[in-house]
User: What shape does this take?
Amino acid sequence: MLKQSGDTILLVENEEEAILLVQQAVASCPGELYLAVVQDSVAALDWLSAETAHGHPVPRLILIDLKLPKLLGLAVLRTLRMDSRLTHVPIVVFSESHEPSDVVLSYQIGANSFVRKPENLAEFSQLMRDLIELGWLDEHGMGKTLQQTIHS
Assistant: This one.
């Protein structure tokens, strides 16, 4: 069965190891979720435009790496938050770095959460469970607010 974008988590990540970990974490989640992976910021914006042009709903959740090729994750976050179709889509920014300026700027631009990039399957799986528990993958999108959740 082909899944619609409404069942989709969009992952914007260029590191193969992290992509594999997220794929495994999503596969272990209850329910039917589809993980769409794009490896740079321009591809993410193109993917969102193409999906909505074909009448698919926007994804339920966007996970975006802070350090991306072409445009930095913060530039993509700003572009996504200016798109009225994505107003209610939770966006989680993650990074290997934990610079306070990156955290503050991510929240100022419109991230719903900033987390340290999980390093293994157990950490990625816990992150996915947390997001599900918060209701961020529910049909109506935004559930509870994740308060300054930074996994270390």
Summary: Residues 140-152 have pLDDT under 50 and may be disordered. The first strand starts at residue 8 and ends at 12. The CA atoms of residues 118 and 125 lie 9 Å apart. Residues 5-133 form a domain with the Rossmann fold fold (CATH 3.40.50.2300).
